[in-house]
Amino acid sequence: MSWQYDSRTRIFSPEGSLYEVEYDKDGVVLAAEKRFTFKRLATLNSTEKMYKIDDHVVCAVAGIMADANIRINCARLSAQRYTLAYQEPMQVKQLGQSLCDTKQGYTRFGGLWTFGMLFLFAGYDKNFGFQLHLSNPNGNYGD
Predict the structure, then answer these.
(1) Does residue 84 contact residue 71 with C-beta atoms inside 8 Å?
(2) Which residues form the domain of 125?
(3) Do 59 and 119 sit in the same domain of this protein?
(4) pLDDT of 5 strictly over 50
(5) Which pLDDT score is estimated for 79?
(6) What are phi and psi of 131, to 5 degrees?
(7) How many CA atoms lie within 13 A of 102 on its CB side?
(8) Are residues 104 and 50 in the same domain?
(9) Looking at the predicted structure, is the pLDDT value of residue 84 above 90?
(10) Residue 134: which of 143, 125, 14 has the closest Cα?
């Protein structure tokens, strides 16, 4: 009966584990803050920080939104092409890695604009369950 022990966020079970950590194994949550410097400015829908890539993948963005919008559209297109070709959804890790490959390619040559944004991909696939992956501006990738 865990309800006797976990009425607060940092409570240890009789076995010595944190219930807060045990509960976090069943999903991924992404949150974004939208900041406004001037209260009198109208809100724009183009400054979203959370995007749906496919039915099983979402993405949180930090950085230059013009660059992010281009890469988000490419990620959506990649996911749709994969689904069309293989009749199953693209794995979250594979989607993140393909985007990182493109971003890293822009860092190799002079005269190309490197993408100035960071992505957090969260999603679910049948092989690996819930996942969270990071894509840095320079093309580095992390789980």
Answers:
(1) no
(2) 32-142
(3) yes
(4) no
(5) 94
(6) -140, 155
(7) 16
(8) yes
(9) yes
(10) 143
Average of per-residue pLDDT across 10-29: 67
What is the secondary structure of the chain as a DSSP string? -GGGT-SSSS-B-TTS-BHHHHHGGG----------S-TTSPP-GGG--EEEEETTEEEEEEE-HHHHHHHHHHHHHHHHHHHHHHSSPPPHHHHHHHHHHHHHHTTSSTTPPPP-EEEEEEEEETTTEEEEEEE-TTS-EE-
Q: Do residues 133 and 142 lie in contact, with contact meaning Cβ atoms separated by under 8 Å? A: yes
Residue 143's pLDDT band, with cuts at 50, 70 and 90, is confident
CA distance 29 to 132: 9
- How far apart are alpha carbons 117 and 63 in whole angstroms? 4
Mean pLDDT of the chain: 79
Q: Which of 49, 52, 56 is nearest to 92 (CA)?
A: 56
Do 94 and 124 share a structural domain?
A: yes
pLDDT value at position 9? 56
Percent of the chain with pLDDT over 90: 25
> Which distant-in-sequence residues (6+ apart) come within 8 Å of 43 by Cβ?
34, 36
**Mean pLDDT confidence for 2-9:** 51
